[in-house]
Request: fold
Amino acid sequence: MRRGWRRRSLGEGTPWLWLVVGVVIAGAVTLAVVLVASSGKGAVSGEPPPGPYALPGPYAAGVTTLDLAGGPVDVWYPIDRATAVGHPRVAYDLRSWFPPDLAARVPVGMSFTTDAYGGVAASKHGPFPLVLFASGLYSFRDQSTFLTSWLASWGFVVASPEFSTDLTQFFSDLGGTNSAHHTSDYQVLLDTETLVLHDSAAGTGLLANLVRPGMVGIVGHSLGGLDAIQFAGRSDVAVYVSLAGGSVPPPADLPAKPSLFMTGSEDQDVNPAWVKATYDAAPSPKKFVSLPTAGHLAFTDLCLINPGHGGVAAIGAALNLRLPAGAPFVGR
Reply:
């Protein structure tokens, strides 16, 4: 039953662009339920949406890293669940993005074990649609592996590049070593799309013949949400998703593409009203979702790191630095 449904959704039946919207909603709402339950604040009103999207998809997620001139790109892709047996899940440590002198001050416990397996052969059921992921300002390419892995489990190849203004640059700016040159997020996303499509078409390596040529989707968080809106103006983008991303006034010339806008009702960094105003200005078809009790970082892994020991806010105390008000390490 599930296999037949998958073929219809990714093939000649339900358009895949609406599948990515449904999977993103389900993944974010499911994480919100987990976060609220673990915080002891009670249940979010409503449960994760019923149906197949409320659980991980029929695949497991593999992950590999490609190299752009400006930095690495992590790529999640579908693997057959039987293939994942015996392989460990990939973990990352936030300290990897810190300058060495600051990393030495950060306590252990800042690692996160993802739901993806490294270097495992891709499923032979492809090719699969490509989705680009744009991280937020001063964030990092792996910030939302809960979602990128979830998308891969539902039959997508997901590529997330490291932007010039990443977490490493954040701490470099604090140290007064800000670089004058940054490659635009738009160009990095374009280069990422080109790189992944090239590796697939080359017919060698883990991504050989894995990506379906043609239209792509894009998902972005915070400033990455605005990046997604801008990038969706390209003719080869079928659908875009903005997570906690919006502005007043809204961006000019919002793309006439199917879209999803999501916000957290308690976001103190990007006002939910800004996201709603941007959604209101967007052409149809579109969807808007507000997650009750969720904050700005509810669309990332960060709320799940170092639980019970101060979370990522413990980083600010350990560094003993005066951090900007919007930083995720100041205890908010």
In short: The chain has ten helices and ten strands. Strands lie at 60-68, 71-79, 89-93, 111-118, 128-134, 157-161, 211-221, 237-243, 259-264, 286-291. The radius of gyration is 19 Å.
